[in-house]
Amino acid sequence: MESLPRKRKGARSLAGSLHDASADRKRTCRERKPRPDKKKKKPSAAGDDAATASGRGGVVMTAPPASGRATPDSPGRGLKRKVGCIESATRIGRKKRLETEYELGDEIGQGKFGSVRICRAKAGGEEFACKALPKNGEETVHREVEIMQHLSGHPGVVTLKAVFEDADKFYLVMELCSGGRLLDEMARDGTFSEQRAALVIKDLMSVVKYCHEMGVIHRDIKPENILLTKTGKMKLADFGLAARVTNGQKLSGVAGSPAYVAPEVLSGSYSEKVDIWGAGVLLHVLLLGSLPFQGGSLEAVFEAIKTVELDFNSGPWESMSVLGRDLISRMLDRDVSSRMTADQVLCHPWVLFYTECTLKAVTPNVTNQIVAPKIPWDRIRSHSESSASDSSSQRSEDQDECGIVDALTAAITHVRISEPKRTRLCSPGIPIQQECSSNLKSNLCTAF
Ligand SMILES: Nc1ncnc2c1ncn2[C@@H]1O[C@H](COP(=O)(O)OP(=O)(O)OP(=O)(O)O)[C@@H](O)[C@H]1O
Description:
The chain is α+β, with helices and mostly antiparallel strands. The protein is built from 17 helices and eleven strands.
C-alpha cells in the first residue's frame, strides 16, 4: 500500500488501517465530458444579486451561484439538485452512510474548513481522499461540489468521486493525490530552476485556462492547493473559494489568501485575471523562494500588493533570464487589462522555450507544435533593447521551426527589459518553510 510522502498535522500511516475488498464500485462521473453550463444564472446588477453570501467559517463569498440557490431548510435537496451527475452517488450516500462504501483511514491534510482523510473503497480497494466539511457552511459546500463536478474530466483537476452527508457534515470523496503538495516540494527542494518552474507554470496555466473557459475563477491559486499524483502529475485542488461567472461578470468581496491576492480584489471588483496574479506570485516564490509582497501585518501586505514596485533589474533577478522577468512582470501587472491571460502565458516565449525546447531535445519533430504567430514577438520587442530582439523583429510567421527555437534561445539569453529601474521590493529570500511557519502563517498562507 502506498504511503503518502508528506502529511500535515496529525497525519499517520495508513498501513493496517484499511481492509481489503473485492470489486470497485462502478458509479462515477469521471467519464462525463465537461460541457458549458446551460443554466447559468443571469448576471445581476452590482451589489444586488451578485451579492454576498456567507460561506463557511465566515468566508465572504460574493459570486452568484451559477445555478439555483439552496434554501436553508432543504440542505439535502439543494445538494442533490446542484451536483448533477454526482446526484446518484449522493442519493446512495443518503441511504447508506459513507462508512458502508468506504473505510476511512488517517488524516492526510487539514484545511481551514475541515480535515482530509484517506479512504478506501470497500469494493475494489481503491484509495481516495475524503474531505469532511461542516454543514454550517452549506452554501459554500454546494458551490464547491458543483464546481468540481462542472470541471470534472480535465486531467489537471482533482476529480470528485462521490458526496455523502450525515447530520453534521458533508463528505467529498475525491481522487487521491498521494504525491503531496507543491508547497512540500518547494520546502524540500528550495528554489526551482527556470525550466522546472516553467513546467509547473505551463501545467498550472493549462488547467487555469480550462477553468476560465468553463466560467470558473479559482480565487485561491497557491502552492498549498496544487497537489501531485503518485506519478508527479499536477492537479489543481480546493475549489472552496471558487466562483462561477458568466461572460464578463465581475466579482466583488475579498476572497483568497492574503499573500496571493490581486490588488483589484482589494478594490472590490475583479475578474478571472486574479488567478493569473496568484500564479505570478507563485512563480515568484518558485524562482526566488520568497513572496513578492510582504509585510508584518495584513494591512502591510495589502499595502505592498497595491503599491510596491518590483525591481527586476537587480538582486536575485539579475541571474534570471530576461524573458522570465518579462513574464512575471506581465503576470503581476496591476493593470488588469494588460495583465496576461492564461492563454498568453502559455504562449509566452519563456514558457515555450523551457517546455517545448525540452521536448525538442528528445523528440525532434515536436517543435512543430510551436506556432510562430502565437509567439508575442511584438511584446518582446517593445520590452527589449538588445540586438536579439532586433533580429527577432525581422522574423516572419512562416519561419521554420529551427529558426523559432534559435530565436527563442537568443531572446531568452539577451533580451532585456527596458522598463525604468524601480524601487527594489524583494526582501532577501526567505526559505519557504520558515515563511510559512512564521507567525504570519495563519494570515498569509491560508485562505480568508
Ligand atoms: N485529493 C486530495 N488528495 C490528497 N490530499 C488532499 C486532497 N485534497 C486535499 N488534500 C490535502 O488536504 C489539505 C486541505 O485540503 P483543502 O485545501 O481542499 O481544504 P480546505 O479546508 O479547503 O483548505 P484551505 O484552508 O486551503 O482553504 C490539502 O492541502 C492537502 O494536503
